[in-house]
Specification:
The protein starts with a helix and ends with a helix. It is an all-alpha fold. The chain is elongated, with a radius of gyration of 27 Å. The chain has two domains: 154 residues, no CATH class; 110 residues. It is 84% helix and 0% strand. Helix 1 packs across helix 3.
């Protein structure tokens, strides 16, 4: 009876929370959902539930001060990752959407797991039912943080994509500057000739738009480096800005040196990607190996048990 009571209470809490947020959020967030891509946010239809729960609040009043500080620090880290991924123009919108998405994932999984747990307990499988009930509570508390951790992988992929493309850009810029173009004209020419979608050229186009809007060229380049957050890009921009401010004529040999360093960076990034791919391949290989061991050993074990 105690098992049924615990499982029913947990299920009631999560299901009521789900239904409350569902009905309260209906039609209230449609203007936000219009700009959310379902391919990017698989739980798009449930994001309003998370937004509703985040705006309900109430739990913060009962939290210890140390826990509040830790959560505030975590939220700041998430915001910085979103700032890098989405840029300063869209970070506030996507920060709001991400908050709803992470809570929606927790609500959805916890409601489903707690409901499954209660069904198992009622059917007489108390141990499995309690396992699902515990999983429901763990999902509600932990799943939002797992969603936050997925942003770290996206940031890593973004930086690596820039690292792989940046040496080619530096090589083109060096050739154009060596042919007599200014850095700004070479920058614009490279952008115009590269129409394909890539995070590096998107950031370059944004910097060019800022320059055309009246922002000082050096400031636009420095902000470009801050948005990329790649060491080699920052070093390259410092050389360009120094050339703009001093009007030095030695920029070409420095650009060539930068190009050599960037190609070494690309080789290192490619090597790291290969090592990570090799590590990921080991997991299915281990699963296949265990399957082969079971297939080979099962007849021998069965013959031994039948002989006994």
């Amino acid at each position: 009876m105690a098992t049924i009571a615990v499982s029913s209470a947990v299920c009631a809490v999560f299901v009521i929370m789900f239904l409350y947020c569902y009905f309260k959020s209906r039609g209230n967030y449609d203007e936000y959902m219009e700009y959310v891509d379902k391919e990017e946010y698989g739980l798009k239809d449930f994001i309003p539930l998370g937004l509703c729960l985040s705006e309900t609040g109430g739990a913060n009043r009962w939290m210890p001060m140390q826990l509040k500080m830790a959560l505030s620090q975590h939220d700041n880290q998430v915001y910085q990752r979103l700032l890098e991924l989405r840029g300063p123009r869209d970070v506030e919108f996507y920060s709001y959407i991400h908050k709803g998405y992470r809570l929606a994932a927790g609500i959805l999984c916890s409601a489903g797991a707690s409901l499954m747990g209660m069904i198992m307990v009622v059917q007489g499988d108390a141990s499995t039912g309690l396992m699902f009930t515990g999983a429901a509570a763990a999902a509600f508390l932990g799943l939002p943080f797992l969603v936050d951790e997925s942003l770290k992988e996206e940031v890593t992929k973004r930086r690596r994509s820039i690292q792989m493309e940046f040496p080619e850009f530096v090589s083109k810029l060096t050739l154009l500057v060596g042919a007599g173009m200014t850095i700004s004209r070479a920058w614009e020419k490279i952008i115009n000739e590269n129409r394909r979608e890539h995070v590096l050229y998107d950031e370059m186009r944004y910097a060019l738009m800022e320059i055309r809007a009246g922002k000082p060229e050096a400031v636009a380049y420095e902000e470009f480096a801050r948005r990329c957050r790649v060491k080699e890009v920052t070093k390259f921009v410092s050389v360009v800005v120094m050339n703009l401010r001093r009007g030095g004529s030695e920029v070409l040999p420095v650009l060539r040196e930068q190009g050599s360093e960037c190609w070494e960076m690309r080789k290192s990034a490619a090597k790291q990607m290969g090592e990570e791919a090799g590590t990921k391949i080991m997991i299915p290989l281990m699963i296949m190996f265990l399957g082969i061991v079971l297939i080979v050993s099962t007849p021998a074990v069965l013959s031994m048990t039948s002989g006994m």
